[in-house]
Every structure is written in C-alpha cells, then in structure tokens.
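Blackboard transcription, Thursday session:
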Amino acid sequence: MRFVTVSGPPSSGKTAVIIKTLEHLQKAGQKVGVVKFDCLFTDDDELFRKNGIIVRKGLAGALCPDHYFVSNVEECVQWGLQEGLDVLVSESAGLCNRCSPHIREVLALCVIDNLSGIGTPKKIGPMLKAADVVVITKGDIVSQAEREVFAARVHMVNTKARLLHVNGITGQGSFELSTLWTEAEDTATVEGKKLRFSMPAALCSYCLGETRIGSDYQMGNVRKIDLDLPTGLKTDGAPGAAE
Amino acid sequence: MSQNLESLTVETVFSRWPFAQQHLAEAGLAEIADKPEAPLGELLNAGQLENLGNFISVMEDFLGTKDEKVAEVTILGGRAKDGSDEPVRELTVNVGDVVCIVGPTGSGKSRLLADIEWVARGDTPTGRHVLINGEVPGDKWRFSSEHKLVAQLSQNMNFVMDLSVEEFLNLHAESRQAADPEEKIKRIWNWANELAGEPFALDTPVTSLSGGQSRALMIADTAVLSASPVVLIDEIENAGIDRQQALDILIREEKIVLMATHDPILALMGDKRVIINNGAMQKVIEPSEQEKANLTELRALDAKLMGLRHRLRMGERLDEI
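(Written on the board underneath:)
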C-alpha cells in the first residue's frame, strides 16, 4: 500500500487537492482511502464518501492534535491494509504551525495557498520544510507575479521539494500530482519509523486541565516571553519615544 | 564549491549571491556580516561552508542563472477522447508566435494547455509529447517553479498583496534576482501606463488599480519579469486596454503567446489558430487574406464601440452614433 501524509494550514485546500488527485487513481482502478485528522469538528469525511473514497476520521478533542496523530498513525496504516487499499492518505488539519506529521520514508506533502500571504512559508516551519512535495493552490485568482514571488518564498524554506500548482476547484494539476503518488514507497507498517521533526514539547499544568492564569498555577515545562527590547533597538515605536 | 567559498570575502559572497546573507542569518550566523573583509574560511567551519555551497548551487539552479533559452516548443499529437489518433501530429511554436486556441467548452483546451505546462511525455491522458528546442526536456520543467514553462494571465486574477506598484515590482524583481531592477521596473510601469490609457503612479497601491490598469500591469510585468517562456492568456478584456500593443510587448520580450479566445479581433491577430474538439487538435489554420481584410473592419467597429463607451463616461447622450 502506498501511504501519503498531507499537511497544510487550515483552508489551504488539502481536502480538495486530495479528492481531485485520488479521482485519477480511482479511474485507474485503484482502491483509495483517507484518514482525516482534525481537532474538534470536521464533516469532510462526508465529502470523501461522496466521492467514493473510503474514509475514517479522528478528532483529537482535548489532546494535542500532533500527539494524537502520531499515536494513531500505525493503527491507520493497518486499517488501510485490511481494507485492501492501494493508496492511503492521511490528512492532518488543526496542527499547530510548530508541527509536522511527516514520517521518514513516507511521501510527505504540504498544501499551501497563494492567498495566505508571503510571510506564511517562513511561519509554518516543519510541515513545509520537511515535505517532499509542496502543492500551491489558489493560483487562478492571483497574478503571475504573486505566484512567482510566493513560489520563490516556498523555495527559500524548502529547496529540495518538488513544487506543483494545483487548482482544487477545476483539478488542474491534480493529474500531475497523482503520478507522484503512484511513485510513493510501498508501506506495510510505520512501526519503528521516525518522524521527520520532533513534536512540540509540553507537559505543564495546563496540559493536565488547569484553567486558572498566574505563576502560582504553572508547573512543569513552562517558558516565559522576553518583553525587553532586543539589544540594538533603541525605540519600540511608541509615539514620541526618543531615538 | 566549498573550496572556492573559503577564500572569498564575506563582501564578495554577499554581492555575488545576495540570498546567501539571509541563509547565513537563518543559520544563526548573521554576525559574519560585521566582517566584510574576512575570508569565509576564517569564519565558518567545514560543515557550514558545505551547507552554504549547496544552498548557493540549488538557488542558482532554481533561478535559472545558467540556463539555455527556449526558442521553440513542439507538441507531438497523441489521442483524441475516443482513443483515435489526434489529427494534428506535430505543432511547433516559436518565440514571437501568437497562437490562438479555439473550441467549445469541454473540447480539451485546458488539457492541451496542461500538457504544455507539464511538458507531457506521453504520460498524460492524451498521450501527447512536448519537446523544448526539439529535445525531450528534463524534470526541472515540471517541479521547480522558476522553470515553469507557462505563465498565465486570466480575467479572474487579482492583486492580493497590500503594496504599492513600485514595492510590488521590487519584490518580484528581487525574488527573480533580476539584473538592473530599476530599469526593469521603469519599463514595466511605462508600458503598463501605455496599455491602460489611464495612467497610474508608482506609489498607487496595486489593490486599488482599475480592472484595465491591473491587467496592463500584469501583462507588462509578465513580459519583463516572468521567467516562463510561454504566456497563456485566457481572453484579454475589451475594456481599457490596447490589446494589439499588449501582444506586441509580449512578442518584443521574446515570449511564445498562447491565447484561449473567441474574440474575433484577438483570434484574427494570431499567426495560427488551433482548432480543438473531442480532446484533440483537429486542425491548425492560418488567417486567410480575407480574414486579414476583415480584421481591419472589425477594428473599426471596435474603435467605434470604444468611442461610444468614452462618450458615455463623459456624460454624453448617444442619440447620434
């Protein structure tokens, strides 16, 4: 079974890209399935079902979505094998920008959209940096120049990834993407494989359900923001502040 | 690469590869900028030098600084939707050509353009092959954005960045690492103003340009700054832009222009017309003498309509036309 992990910021078009891409594989007679990870709510599973895709969803609920993903991914792979899938896709939504669900030796895809602003490639970190394939969406509504600038910014963050433009509405570019998915490595298990990037560290009182604010209630792995002016900066921009 | 880098001064490296500065800053080595005279070998360890070397060569490749020019693109026919052979077996378009693509909705226009964009190798549903300069092109045309074969202009495109025209063009020039950006920005701005008719200033925010001005700026910018040798135009709107001049600018900048259009004036402006149906190129025709003569008449009609439009704008009545 070929296994692909798909990540990307909210509303970047992950679901649309997956559906359009799997359509080509379905036409070629392949059995395809998706596991959709989300935080609190998703009805995307209905969308997948409507398109003839076998789907399961997992909601992290009170847990960190990234930890929830990694604690369940092997079970998902085994489920896919049992269903006799040719291609299994995991879609992770609700990940924080610090995170990445990408696993070594498993095809890793990041979906990011032209409307998200040119600062985004730098902000989203590992899910983009650790991807093998970067799909840029919503290119049909911005100018050629903006597409080129955005792609250059993506390239600055991840110089090795293959870059593709896909239109989630018309499906333009999705056939091309599907050819890369068929080249993914055959995966029988992810047991023992490693994440490409470690998950965010945590275990403080808030992880355990604390809701009150204040140092007295904070225990464990806690770090404080540095509010002093960085050295070399003479003014913080307040009106009338001295140079 | 790393051996060369060792002996170069920080200053030389930064001026030759401006993106190196950012790379080093991100690697936590920003302070080396304080010693412009020092050779890199004294400031970086072997691993850091190697990383920088790799980054520079990947970036050079990405920016296409060492690339040969695209002079022609050839499409070798594949299959129609019903599996029969595509009637047009070979179509070569050269730099400076304007090719119109006509056919009803669902006839396969988009797939043809997608085949060109993806430089098909018989591995798309149509089985077409696309050659660049007569040869089978490499993977870089598929996956690196700066080697994208096709730049696109369509009516649905908008500027979304909150920047002035000048800042915007600067950003584009910077991301392309363009030589002599000031000259290029001036040229784009002048051309865009000529195309649009209604002039705009360099400090106008791109998001407040009119429809015609936006289109004009997109065309001039694509002509001058885009790396893609093929420009695909999905109709050029009639209002407020000199379409003949728009094509002239793209031709002057050595682009191959493909136009999906059913506008008679645009279609007759093309050097060739590709007729698509049933998922295949059925025929390639060139405008006849009669068509060329008709073009003059169509232009006169068009000018008349534009004149009426102008009079409306000025608050006049159209009792006399």
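Lecturer's comment: The helical segments of chain A are 14-27, 44-50, 65-82, 120-123, 126-129, 144-157, 174-181.
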